[in-house]
Amino acid sequence: MVRLNVFLLLAALLCSLGAVTSQHKARKLFQALEAEQERARQLDVEFGQLQLELSTWGTAPRIEKIAREKLKMSPPEASRTISATAGDGGSR
């Protein structure tokens, strides 16, 4: 009878240690999950900011300014332009 009590005590001790260990792992994983979710939120904000910046950098007035100032470009003279009109689409 004493052996059975000792065996049951050891089994209960091992089960309780297993429960504590699994709870600790679950808490650590939950903390890691929350940290990654926060990082995902930060990346979403950064992505939105980058999209806004990209749309600002690609505006026509900015591109025209860079073309004039840095590349020394200017619009072509009217006498050097050729206009093309849309015809019948090449069908005969």
Structural overview:
The protein is mainly α and 92 residues long. It has one domain. It is 72% helix and 0% strand.
Keywords:
2 helices; single chain
* Biggest pleated-sheet summary: none
User: How many independent structural domains?
Assistant: 1
Residues in helices, as a percent range: over 70%
String of helices and strands:
HH
Category from helices, strands and their pairing:
mainly alpha
User: Strand-residue fraction?
Assistant: under 5%
Please give the count of helices: 2
Flag low-confidence runs: none
Instruction: Name the quaternary structure.
Output: single chain
Radius of gyration: 36 Å
End-to-end distance, in Å? Answer: 106 Å
SSE arrangement:
Layout: H1 2-57, H2 60-69
Task: Give me a quick take on this structure.
The protein has one domain (2-70). The protein contains two helices and no strands.
